[in-house]
Each structure stands twice: as C-alpha cells, then as structure tokens.
TrEMBL record:
It comes from Idiomarina fontislapidosi. PROSITE patterns: GATASE_TYPE_2 (PS51278). Catalyzes the formation of phosphoribosylamine from phosphoribosylpyrophosphate (PRPP) and glutamine. One of its GO terms (molecular function) is magnesium ion binding. This is Amidophosphoribosyltransferase. In the C-terminal section; belongs to the purine/pyrimidine phosphoribosyltransferase family. Binds 1 Mg(2+) ion per subunit. It catalyses: 5-phospho-beta-D-ribosylamine + L-glutamate + diphosphate = 5-phospho-alpha-D-ribose 1-diphosphate + L-glutamine + H2O. Keywords: Glutamine amidotransferase, Glycosyltransferase, Magnesium, Metal-binding, Purine biosynthesis, Transferase. SUPFAM superfamilies: N-terminal nucleophile aminohydrolases (Ntn hydrolases) (SSF56235), PRTase-like (SSF53271). Residues 2-235 form the Glutamine amidotransferase type-2 domain. InterPro entries: GATase_2_dom (IPR017932), Ntn_hydrolases_N (IPR029055), PRTase-like (IPR029057), PRTase_dom (IPR000836), PurF (IPR005854), PurF_N (IPR035584).
Amino acid sequence: MCGIVGIVGKQPVNQALYDGLTMLQHRGQDAAGIMTVDEYNTLRLRKANGLVRDVFHTRHMHRLAGNVGIGHVRYPTAGSSSSAEAQPFYVNSPFGIAMAHNGNLTNAADVHAHLFKTARRHINTTSDSEILLNVFANELDKNDSLELSADDVFRTITAVHRKVRGAYAVVSMILGHGLVAFRDPWGIRPLALGKRETAEGDEYIVASESVAIDGTGFKYVRDVEPGEAIYITNDGQLFSRQCADKPKHCPCIFEYVYFARPDSFIDGISVYASRVNMGRKLGEKLKRDYADLDIDVVIPIPETSCDIALEIASVLDLPYRQGFVKNRYIGRTFIMPGQTQRRKSVRRKLNAISAEFKGKNVLLVDDSIVRGTTSEQIIEMAREAGAKRVYFASAAPEIRFPNVYGIDMPSANELIGHGRESNEICEMIGADGLIYQELDDLVAAVGEENPNVQRFETSVFSGEYITGDINQDYLDELDAARNDMAKAQRDGGEDANLELHNDND
Ligand code: AMP
C-alpha cells in the first residue's frame, strides 16, 4: 500500500507536502519522495528509503522549491524495496511528467511489452507505477501541440483507462501546465480533494486520505469519483471530468479494516465509525452463537483493533482492558523481510501486563489474521502472563486469497487462512476458540455508513476479483514475486541501479 499527495498552491508547497506525507505515513514506511516544480519550471526531487522524517532533512526541504508538487510514501507490493523504486517517477517527454501512484496494475506485464513494441519505451524498474507513467506519457504525446487543454488531459486519461487494468489512484504533474489526479474506474484505491482559500486565490490538495487534507489546513471538498480525472492548472483553475467508459464504485474494504487512519473519511465513510460497527457486529455474533464462552475480559491487540474491541466489550457487557502495551518506536511487523525476524518483532513490539491475564479467560481481538504470526505469538504471551483460556476474535473474515490491488499481502501459501477451515487455524495459532467476522457483516458494518456505496472490493475473503481479469497464471506469478524468499533475493541486489536515480543526498 502507498500514500500519495499533490498540491497546487500559491506559496511554496514543500512543508505542506511533508506534513501530508507524515499524516499518510501509516500507508507506507518503506520509502518517501517529493517532487516540486520551481519558478524556472525545473523539477526538484528528493526520494529515498526510510520514514518521511528520515528522508527529508532541512537541506532537502530548501531544495524542494516551488508552488506545485507531489509526494509519495511507499509500502512495497509486487515491486522490490530498492530505493531506486521510490516514487515519484519522472519522464522528460512530453513536457516533463512526474507521477506518484497507489495501487497495482493487473496487466502490467502486457502493457510493458506493448509499450516497448509500439513506442520503444524503456522501463527501468520493476515498478508498475513506472509503466503507468509511460502509458500516460505515451497517450499524452499523441496530442502533438505545444499547448495543452483540459480536454487533452481528459482524452489522455480516457485512453489510459482503456489500456490499463487494476487499481490506481494517481497524482501527476505536467511541467508548465498543472497537476492531474485520477482514480481507477472501480475506485478501488482512495483519493480525495481539498481546497484552501487564500488572499492570492484558491489552493488545492489531492490526497489518499482526508486526514492529510485536514492536517495540512485544507478543507475536504469531496472524494475523486471512480474513473474521474481532476486537472488543476498551475494558476489554480480546476477542471474535472468522468473519463471511464463504465465506472462502478467498489472501494477496497481492507482500507476500513486495517489500512486507513480512523480519523479519515473514505468515500463518505468514517473509518472510525466503520470499525465501531465491525465491533458491534462481531459482538452480536459472539452473544448469539458463543454464549457458552466464559469470557472474563476483552483485550485488544493494539492499535487498530482498540475501537473494535471496546465495542465488543460493550455489546457483551464485559470489561475492556488494555492488556498489551505497544512500543510505539517499532514499526509494523510486516516490514520485516523474513519470517524469523517477523516472529521476533511481534515480541519486541508488544508486551503483556500480567495482572490483566492472571487466572482469567480472555478474549483477544485483532482486526485481521494474515499469516497468523501475530496471533500465535500473542496467544503464547497471554498464556505466559497467566491466562486460563485464550479466545481470539478477528474483525475481518478469513483471509484466504492474495490481494492484487495494491495491498501488501503475502503469497497465498503464506496466508494461514488459505485452504484451511477456521478450526484448523484455531489449532495452528493455539487458541481455545477462534471467532471470525462474517463477510456479510463486515460489508454491512462499512456499508451502513454510506448507503450510496453498494459494493466493496472483498477479494481477499471471497476470491472474487472485480476487474474480471485475474486467472491462475497471474496468481502464480504474483506468488513467485511475493513469497519471502523471492523478496529477500531481490532486496539483496538492491543497489544495482541506484546510480540512475540520484537522490541528491
Ligand atoms: P499476521 O501475523 O500476519 O497474522 O498479521 C496480522 C496483523 O497484521 C494484524 O494485527 C493486522 O493488524 C496487521 N495487518 C493486516 N494486514 C496487514 C498488511 N497488509 N500489512 C501490514 N500489517 C497488516
């Protein structure tokens, strides 16, 4: 998963881009980048591996001059985690285009081959975002005038929608012209628009989550529609148009389960409220079907599941206790490449308060179970802290299938829910009982916050891929690219093409 932000301002945008990326840091901690266009129409770039606060030093911020810019935080999905793949990417023709992308193209290999054959375009990384940038550039190049109208931009996006498949939320800058933002025809990945009125005129921001709009002093205006493109000229004129042939709204449900910040609204749905609803639904299931479980206390696995667990406790009329303390200086365990490191880092990250466990039957609550590493370790820790019985509840249903739309999920075989029933999973993680949310309840929990959204992208639970182009061959290739071993091998050769992407340290 990644986070993106773009701003057309009346003042230098470097600080606001930095702040926006910091607010989107939870969407990617692997690499960060900002590109701005200065007063001489020259691109300024800083990108490198690391957290926002570590990538941008004062000297970089000074260099990122200009009133228009885009930024990106990366969580690697299919690509490698080499810093050469950090975004934004750039191509020099036509005009000079910079782009930052969140999502995953499902026909990247075909498009890549086609680009080379028909336009002799070279792709220098393994990133599908560089492919998307080149498709965009190639289509924009078909208009051979030195002028660029909003119609030209929208025609280009229409052509891009026809060429690529999958999930994409994009911010892009066309040098000398303006900022373009667009969202795939299914609206799988989120993108929202904000505005700020100043004495010099209106300033605009586009960002993955509304939190980056509020937090930078802009006002949320609306979400970008699925398939829609927004073009904001450098002098602040905004144009928008639906550019997809058949847009359908189908946002990714996992944003609400795990990824997004609770204080964000995505597609008119409060992430926080949807999590409270997930807790209510799961609490009702426990009350209805598991009344015989002698639970003494409900304990969340911090932090995403705290709002969920609190609601479960309230439905069950049981005490809610923070039995685990999180070391806030340790990142998400997923960023660890190999399974051994991942195991250790769960214990580094969380520690139990034994008074909350000693002699009690506890219900641990997590938002989801992916590999099962966290749950297995946590259950072990709860027992070591003296728990009598340890039950486990997951606010998301069994994750059985890989994600092909930009969420960093392991390969199918590394998912504990792949091909296993709940009782087997329960045994593997060592719980005395395992209760999963029903998919219908999850969909209802999120959907009730905005009845206009009638469908969600739920493939990791159902195996139904809405774009209709996913077959076993594709999944096998993904599997090969994603398993831990492949990742470790790729990242070992990380520095090979760093020279081509000078980060101007
Ligand atoms: P696991 O140990 O693999 O079962 O990890 C499950 C935990 O990881 C849950 O506590 C989730 O909060 C979190 N999680 C779920 N999906 C992801 C993801 N795609 N990337 C990072 N963490 C995740």
